[in-house]
């Protein structure tokens, strides 16, 4: 039988004896003769090695007899003790199994493994490990003393110990017992069977991957290769490389001095005195090699570094990869290095897996995938090792997280384990390993841990390699030095994972971090060890929340210098390079950073003898937003110190002046007519659409609506600010269950900046857009109610550039602008707010609404002067979807309603009324998106089948009172509403007895107090309405928001049945509590420790809040389910997606018996619907014996 035929069916113990007979003088191990590598090595031949194994087996039999049923024998020896290898193989021959616990384990952890493995025998060297007495006191065992290595390796021959089993007979026999790392709990024993080990041998049989051509990683192993493994022999990787790989692949393995842990100096000594070709390294050593040029240069003669055991730091290891090829493999104690492929040198950081390993990657939130092994009975015996360890399982969650390569879908980047994830009190999930790996490269750091589960912000606990410096100045200098690495780590992490300077602290020298055998930190054990310190530290930092920066208040210049240092301290993106006139909001200052800056200014002022303390209350986040540059903030701060009242009045005048200046600035140069305005009055051909802001919630549904409903659109250009828009769009749409086939629908993503000439695109790309574009939907706009008007200037500039683009386009492109209904608030009108342009001056409530109003006025001027084909869609409050897969629909938690509910739970108070917001009129996001697409005039099959056409220019415009053409306005809002006073009691009940209802004024006062009671980051993140405090204050001073007319928007929807007259569609004040509970559970507004965070709201559940009544002309006639759907479609009167919603309700309901006159009918829905409350006389269907439905009147 050829060797290839028996690969995967060979027993290691037989191969030891076979090599001793066939090549007795082959060197199989080289053991360092002393701690000085220069003193040379003791070479162990194949004959000598087999003899030592036999001697160990005979010794065991003499002490214990031949083993029956493979009793366990425990052993802990010195680091790199060759007797580990001899004992493991000797046990196999004598009928035992060696159990190798980690010497780093606690007594409790080792006892847990011993008990589960039924271990009652312990082997010890003459010099007993120091923890052995405590272990024996906790777990009684018989103790044997193994001979010294010189005696075991004696050249005197002993009789071969007989081992006669075939592979088939021994496949299920145990070879060795290890245990899990214990990083997330007490370790559990893992038995390596012969059949598991044979899967590594069978890797030789695997062909290269058919899809990529990548070979198995073991192809780098060649007979006679000199091999050094830095993992200890009590670790699975050390045993795997020094026993399993060495014997199956005939390498010559080097072992370092006994008791000496490998470091960079030791590695350099090995390089100097050996010809080692293959290196198996722990992650920390790979990183250190990359950062040590002198040592790295010596690796040029090596074949490979095999990196395993944890994540390496890309920046450091990438330097090593430039000199020596890195083979990045991943494995587990239960599975070995199963399935790993050798990837291309430039992709060394990624993993690839052979299809026969049976690995599947299941998507989770945030673009990460969970690693699973799925059993395939055909491949399992030779290529799915994990199912030898767990033979009863069909599918196993490995709990590792990966991220897919952006362009090579079969490459995977390791992103940690589910167990490592931090779940913050804000609901954000943080994966800390990559950040920790970057920070750990600092030479002063031994290890670090990012902590913070259950808190608002993450913190960094640093274990130093040397004692903490004694003086405060030296400690601050050390923090500054570490902060540079922290900045690097923050740059590769999502912003919610960013670590601030004041969130760095040092571990206690007397409490070293718990470690695994790979020298990585045992997260769970270390967190338990530091549980009290973490709790106390968070209590202190969250009660303070200030930044440690002093500011000289004597002049504008000194204040500006101090503010610049403050921005650097709180890690404003790019703060180091900010000029004093730069707008730091555009650099990335969000509400959290603004609150931190404002709180820091208040703290600085409170601790200053020079400042006017009366100024402190006015230093709010709005103050930061209104002065968004270092110089503006310094001037405003200085003015406040001099005279708080005068500076406030001046700020108001300045805001009003800015509005006029911005409108005048961007209206300058508008032509009196477009050169090609008359060339295209009506389109009948295919369309090319430019869509801005597609990656957000509304934009994703707009793109989906175009792709699903508008087959006449041949091309969509998505213009977005982010360079990775395609990846962001894929993630956004995938999370929402939307269309993802960009190529099939000719969707192209362009990185653009609308505020720049040519949108920041190459001139060729811009001119190609001019030639192709027929329609523009402008949805991109920063949503921030705290920004001042000047911060929105780039967005206003973008509107002007889009106007210029549309006028210059070859097809006289239409421009649909997405605005906000807030522009129409406070309009004098006797009835519902009309769908007209606003000519009444808008009170400067916030920069967001004002910037939208300026843009509307700019479009009006452009339309009147040039004949621009423009329209304005004012959007109301948008909630989650009802169509497509509504279960994936989310209501973004930053919206005002989830924000107020979350803060109400935090405050223990809920407003019984909401200032000027009396009516709640949410509209589903997919319905809103469809209406915007319809208003934009994009043809769809429903419009074409009804005989309608896309409106021509004359139909799309209207004359204003001055006789000029102006863009039509559409209010995209729900045609029905419910009063907040009716909704509030149900929300309060769901929030719990600890929440009471109060007036709007009382609630606002409580919110103001909370900003003072819990300042800083925690105050903002756990009480998110603080971010909207200034905006909510402005609401308190405004008039009641009117109901808005929506007739024009409804008429523009392009389904024939949506044009019918609405007879009645009412929302009841009496709410379905059970359904609302479902929505609140999704919003995280219940007191559930397992779900502490506010997650988004599901619109479908909110729809179920309302008990609906339908009065139709179909009195006293039998109706089918489809008939009810028809009525619902007609009465909803909101386009295509609303019809889908109607179908869902109709087909999901069945009607049982009639309820009491007071309660109304009982309505049951199989999965979601509960009892509905009705008011007044109503037509409702009854169940008949034939199963049909009949309406009946009741009171």
UniProtKB/TrEMBL annotation:
<dbReference type="InterPro" id="IPR051414">
    <property type="entry name" value="Adenylate-forming_Reductase"/>
</dbReference>
<dbReference type="Pfam" id="PF00501">
    <property type="entry name" value="AMP-binding"/>
</dbReference>
<feature type="region of interest" description="Disordered">
    <location>
        <begin position="943"/>
        <end position="967"/>
    </location>
</feature>
<dbReference type="InterPro" id="IPR036291">
    <property type="entry name" value="NAD(P)-bd_dom_sf"/>
</dbReference>
<dbReference type="InterPro" id="IPR020845">
    <property type="entry name" value="AMP-binding_CS"/>
</dbReference>
<protein>
    <submittedName>
        <fullName>Non-canonical non-ribosomal peptide synthetase FUB8</fullName>
    </submittedName>
</protein>
<keyword id="KW-0597">Phosphoprotein</keyword>
<feature type="compositionally biased region" description="Polar residues">
    <location>
        <begin position="943"/>
        <end position="963"/>
    </location>
</feature>
<feature type="domain" description="AMP-dependent synthetase/ligase">
    <location>
        <begin position="36"/>
        <end position="340"/>
    </location>
</feature>
<dbReference type="Pfam" id="PF23562">
    <property type="entry name" value="AMP-binding_C_3"/>
</dbReference>
<dbReference type="InterPro" id="IPR013120">
    <property type="entry name" value="FAR_NAD-bd"/>
</dbReference>
<dbReference type="Pfam" id="PF07993">
    <property type="entry name" value="NAD_binding_4"/>
</dbReference>
<feature type="domain" description="Thioester reductase (TE)">
    <location>
        <begin position="691"/>
        <end position="931"/>
    </location>
</feature>
<dbReference type="InterPro" id="IPR000873">
    <property type="entry name" value="AMP-dep_synth/lig_dom"/>
</dbReference>
<keyword id="KW-0596">Phosphopantetheine</keyword>
<dbReference type="InterPro" id="IPR006162">
    <property type="entry name" value="Ppantetheine_attach_site"/>
</dbReference>
<dbReference type="InterPro" id="IPR042099">
    <property type="entry name" value="ANL_N_sf"/>
</dbReference>
């Amino acid at each position: 039988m050829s060797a290839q035929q028996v690969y995967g069916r060979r027993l290691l113990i037989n191969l030891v004896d076979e090599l001793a007979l066939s090549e007795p003088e082959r060197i199989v191990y080289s053991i360092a003769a002393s701690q000085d590598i220069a003193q040379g090595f003791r070479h162990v031949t194949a004959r000598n090695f087999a003899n030592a194994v036999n001697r160990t087996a005979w010794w065991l039999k003499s002490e214990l007899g031949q083993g029956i049923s493979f009793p366990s024998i425990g052993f802990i020896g010195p680091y790199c003790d060759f007797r580990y290898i001899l004992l493991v193989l000797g046990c196999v021959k004598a009928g035992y199994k060696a159990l190798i616990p980690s010497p780093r384990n606690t007594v409790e952890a080792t006892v847990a493994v011993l008990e589960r493995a039924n271990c009652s025998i312990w082997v010890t060297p003459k010099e007993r490990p120091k923890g052995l007495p405590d272990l024996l006191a906790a777990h009684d065992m018989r103790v044997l003393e193994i001979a010294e290595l010189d005696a075991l390796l004696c050249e005197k021959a002993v009789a071969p110990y007989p081992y006669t089993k075939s592979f088939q007979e021994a496949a299920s026999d145990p070879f060795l017992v290890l245990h899990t790392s214990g990083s997330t709990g007490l370790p559990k024993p893992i038995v390596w069977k012969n059949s598991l080990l044979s899967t590594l041998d069978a890797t030789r049989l695997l062909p290269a991957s058919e899809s990529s051509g990548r070979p198995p990683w073991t192809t780098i192993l060649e007979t006679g290769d000199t091999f050094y493994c830095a993992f200890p022999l009590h670790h699975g990787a050390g045993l795997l490389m020094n026993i399993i790989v060495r014997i199956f692949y005939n390498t010559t393995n080097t072992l370092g001095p006994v008791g000496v842990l490998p470091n960079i100096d030791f590695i350099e000594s090995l390089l100097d005195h050996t010809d080692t070709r293959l290196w198996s390294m722990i992650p920390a050593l790979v990183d250190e090699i990359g950062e040590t040029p002198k040592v790295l240069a010596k690796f040029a003669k090596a074949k490979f570094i095999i990196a395993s055991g944890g994540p390496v730091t890309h920046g450091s290891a990438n330097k090593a990869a430039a000199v020596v090829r890195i083979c990045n493999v991943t494995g587990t104690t239960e599975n070995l290095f199963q399935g790993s492929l050798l990837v291309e040198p430039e992709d060394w950081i990624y993993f690839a897996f052979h299809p026969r390993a049976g690995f599947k990657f299941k998507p989770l939130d945030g673009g990460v995938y969970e690693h699973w092994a799925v059993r395939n009975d055909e491949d399992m015996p030779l290529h799915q090792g994990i199912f030898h360890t767990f033979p009863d399982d069909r599918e196993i969650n490995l709990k590792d997280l990966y991220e897919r390569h952006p362009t090579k879908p079969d490459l995977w980047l390791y992103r940690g384990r589910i167990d490592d994830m931090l779940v913050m009190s804000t609901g954000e999930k943080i994966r800390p390993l990559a950040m920790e790996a970057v920070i750990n490269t600092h030479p002063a750091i031994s290890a670090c841990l990012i902590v913070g589960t259950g808190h608002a912000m993450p913190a960094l606990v640093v274990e130093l390699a040397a004692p903490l410096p004694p003086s405060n100045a030296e400690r601050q200098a050390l923090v500054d030095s570490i902060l540079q690495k922290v900045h690097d780590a923050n740059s590769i992490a999502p912003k919610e994972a960013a670590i601030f300077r004041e969130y760095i602290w040092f571990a206690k020298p007397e409490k070293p971090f718990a470690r695994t055998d790979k020298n990585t930190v045992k997260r769970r054990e270390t967190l338990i060890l530091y549980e009290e310190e973490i709790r106390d530290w968070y209590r202190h930092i969250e009660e303070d929340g200030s930044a440690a920066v002093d500011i000289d208040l004597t002049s504008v210049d000194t204040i500006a210098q101090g503010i610049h240092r403050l921005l650097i301290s709180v890690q404003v993106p790019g703060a180091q390079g900010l000029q004093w006139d730069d707008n730091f909001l555009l650099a990335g200052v969000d509400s959290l950073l603004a609150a931190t800056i404002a709180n820091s200014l208040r703290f600085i002022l409170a601790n200053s003898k020079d400042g006017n303390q009366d100024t402190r209350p006015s230093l709010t986040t709005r103050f930061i937003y209104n002065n968004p540059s270092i110089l503006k903030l310094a001037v405003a701060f200085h003015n406040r110190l001099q005279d708080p009242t005068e500076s406030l009045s001046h700020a108001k005048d300045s805001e009003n002046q800015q509005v006029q200046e911005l409108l005048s600035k961007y209206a300058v140069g508008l032509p009196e007519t477009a050169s090609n305005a008359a060339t295209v009055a009506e389109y009948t051909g295919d369309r090319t659409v430019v869509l801005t802001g597609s990656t957000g919630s509304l934009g994703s549904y707009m793109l989906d609506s175009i792709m699903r409903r508008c087959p006449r659109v041949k091309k969509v250009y998505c213009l977005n600010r982010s360079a990775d828009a395609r990846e962001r769009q894929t993630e956004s749409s995938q999370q929402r269950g939307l269309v993802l086939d960009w190529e099939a629908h000719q969707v192209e993503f362009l990185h653009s900046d609308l505020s720049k000439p040519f949108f920041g695109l190459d001139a060729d790309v811009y001119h190609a857009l001019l030639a192709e574009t027929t329609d523009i939907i402008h949805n991109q706009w920063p949503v921030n109610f705290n920004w001042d008007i000047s911060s929105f200037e780039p967005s206003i500039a973008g509107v002007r550039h889009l106007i210029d683009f549309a006028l210059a386009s070859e097809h006289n492109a239409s421009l649909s602008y997405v605005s906000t209904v807030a522009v129409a608030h406070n309009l004098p009108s006797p009835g519902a707010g009309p769908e007209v342009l606003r000519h009444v001056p808008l009170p400067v409530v916030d920069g967001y609404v004002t910037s939208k109003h300026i843009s509307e006025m700019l479009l009006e001027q452009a339309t009147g002067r040039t004949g621009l084909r423009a329209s304005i869609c004012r959007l109301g409050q948008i909630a989650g979807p009802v169509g497509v897969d509504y279960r994936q629909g989310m209501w973004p938690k930053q919206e005002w309603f989830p924000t107020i509910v979350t803060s109400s739970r935090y405050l223990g108070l809920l407003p019984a009324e909401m200032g000027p917001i009396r009516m709640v009129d949410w509209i589903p996001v997919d319905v809103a998106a469809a209406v915007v697409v319809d208003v934009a005039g994009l043809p769809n099959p429903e419009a074409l089948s009804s005989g309608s056409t896309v409106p021509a220019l004359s139909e799309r415009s209207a004359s204003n009172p001055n006789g000029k053409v102006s863009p039509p306005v559409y209010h995209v809002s729900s045609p029905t509403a419910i009063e907040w006073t009716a909704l509030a009691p149900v929300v309060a009940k769901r929030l719990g007895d600890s929440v009471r209802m109060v007036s709007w004024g009382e609630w606002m006062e409580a919110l103001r107090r909370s900003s003072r009671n819990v300042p800083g980051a925690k105050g903002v993140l756990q009480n998110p309405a603080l971010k909207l405090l200034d905006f909510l204050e402005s609401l308190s001073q405004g008039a009641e928001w009117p109901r808005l007319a929506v007739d024009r928007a409804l008429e523009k929807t392009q389904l024939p049945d949506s044009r019918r007259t609405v007879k009645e569609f009412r929302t009841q004040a009496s709410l379905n509590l059970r359904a609302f509970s479902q929505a609140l559970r999704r919003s995280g507004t219940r007191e559930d420790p397992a779900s502490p965070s506010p997650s988004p709201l599901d619109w479908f559940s909110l729809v179920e809040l309302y008990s609906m009544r339908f009065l139709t002309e179909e009195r006293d006639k039998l109706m089918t389910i489809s008939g009810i759907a028809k009525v619902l479609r007609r009465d909803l009167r909101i386009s295509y997606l609303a019809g889908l919603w109607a179908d869902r309700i109709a087909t999901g309901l069945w009607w049982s018996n009639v309820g009491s006159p007071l309660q109304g009918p009982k309505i049951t829905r199989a999965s979601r619907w509960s009892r509905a409350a009705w008011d007044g006389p109503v037509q409702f269907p009854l169940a008949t014996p034939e199963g049909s439905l009949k309406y009946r009147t009741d009171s």
